[in-house]
Amino acid sequence: MPRSAHAPDTGRIVILGAGPCGLACAAELNRLGHRTFTLLESASAPGGLASSVVDAAGFTWDLGGHVVFSHFGEFDRLLSELFTPEELLHHDRSSYIRHGDGWVPYPFQQHLHHLSPKDATACLRDLLTAHPADGRDVDEPADFGTWLRTMYGQALVDRFFGPYNTKVWATPLERMGSAWVAERVAPVDVEQVLGAFVGTAPPTRRWGPNATFAFPSSGGTGEIWRRLATRIERGQLRTGARAVAIDPGTRTITVDGGERIGYDHLVATGPLDQLTAMTVTCPVTLETAARRLRHTTVAMVGLGYRTPTTDARSWLYFPQPDVPFYRATNFSKYAPANVPGADTGTYSAWMTETSLTPGQGLDRQALVRSCDQVLRRHGLVSEQAPLASAHVEVIPYAYPVPTLGRDEVLAQVVPWMEAHGIYPRGRFGTWRYEIGNMDHAVKMGIDIARRLVNGTREELLASAPDLSTARVECRS
After folding, report:
1. To the nearest 10°, the Cα dihedral for 28, 30, 35, 37?
2. pLDDT reported for residue 208
3. Of the candidates 410, 408, 406, 448, which has an alpha carbon nearest to the alpha carbon of residue 426?
4. Whether 168 contacts 475, CB under 8 Å
5. Which fold has domain 13-51+66-91+216-292+402-469?
6. Which residues does 51 contact at the CB level (< 8 Å), separation at least 6?
7. Element at 103 (helix H, strand E)
8. Which residues, given as ranges, of the chain have pLDDT below 50?
């Protein structure tokens, strides 16, 4: 694509963070013919939150649950360029919620006929009260807990939405906003729910953008970003380079070790609170505001077993307070190569995710024991199955929490950064969970590259406010 005749004088671009957003930005700059950029990654390898690791026993693990689906043509084209059709495995989502001694198909609110008569009656009564038959509009309250009760009724909140979301966010729901919710909570069709009880309108199980998803046949999710990184020329991508200070006045970055790197534009894909703290001229009021932003830490416990992969389900939700994790992913089902020798006739692999508050102490051995016991107790792994591997990864910044007041903080911090040539992008740069999937990150990286080189509008961020009208429940 030729540079626009009215494009800005782009100059030197530095990108902080070689996750999906930073890599996509760098690749797009190359495609546009702009070579004067440097991509700095603090870790020893690219991939960021979408990295994968191989443990000592030969099991592959992602840093939390990722599946490949897309809202954007740019992301689709990227995958088609990086992978042959045979190198991506395609799945129909099969997910369930543990409830009592049984399993309720996802979405929970569309399958109330799977509950006991007592629970189903309570949920239906409160749901009908929350969704009056005369179609009256329900005012949208400010906090997430009240929003859930208003939309679904107290019984559904008590049995699923409340305990599950409290586990996921490690935050009281009354401290979270409700305007952030994106497309991950299925809307309730009361007639369909009622019809399921009498067999006239069985609910669909193929709701949502990840109803079908892809996964690399080998290498885990991180294989996508390893391949994309090979497109970045040597010298443009520097790993093991952690930024410790940014001076917008002199347009310089100081990296660990003291080296100073000049820039004209800075694309920062790391956490926004850390960005304000390392920006030397950032006003104290903005740094203080950014410290009000909240995030979760996630402990990923990957458990490999010497027993065949027989469960056909994709992932399972656990709202129970006596279960440490909120989700268990059938990782050997995603791709046979996730187990040693790609031998799913011998091995199986379950990946669990437990949310923590930042700085919370963690006994890794105790968590491994607890997760293993839960998988066996709930019938996902037999009591006799030998444990072949236990791998723990703690992700300090896992998900940005959409707290009350978040948008006010962003409205203060982000414009100041952009006015000083710093562009916070990606999941934690924007601090907006609702646009925090991998495809969103790639789109943001491509959009900011096009804006800096050609002066074009960033399509995703321009349309992002429209996302606030949708609904959220589960992570992708």
Report:
1. 40
2. 61
3. 448
4. yes
5. FAD/NAD(P)-binding domain (3.50.50)
6. 43, 45, 62, 63, 221, 222, 225
7. strand 102-105
8. 1-7, 465-476
What does the pLDDT read at residue 72? 85
Tell me the CATH number of domain 107-198, given options 1.20.58, 1.10.3110, 1.10.10, 1.10.287: 1.10.3110
> Can you give the residue ranges of every domain in the chain?
13-51+66-91+216-292+402-469, 107-198, 294-399
> Distance between CA 309 and CA 311 in Å, rounded?
6
Is this structure's pTM higher than 0.85? yes
pLDDT confidence of residue 202: 59
DSSP 305-333: ESS------SEEE---TTSS-SEEEEHHH
The owner of tokens 């569309």 is 110
What would the pLDDT profile of 195-252 be if each residue is shown by its tens digit? 777 666 655 555 566 678 899 999 999 999 999 999 998 889 999 999 999 999 999 9
Token pair for 269: 């894909």
Q: Which residue has the tokens 């027989």?
A: 310
The CATH-assigned architecture of domain 294-399 is Alpha-Beta Complex (3.90)
Q: Is 424 exposed, middle or buried (0-12, 13-18, 19+ CB in 10 A)?
A: buried
The tens digit of pLDDT for each residue in 151-175 reads 899 999 999 999 999 999 999 999 9
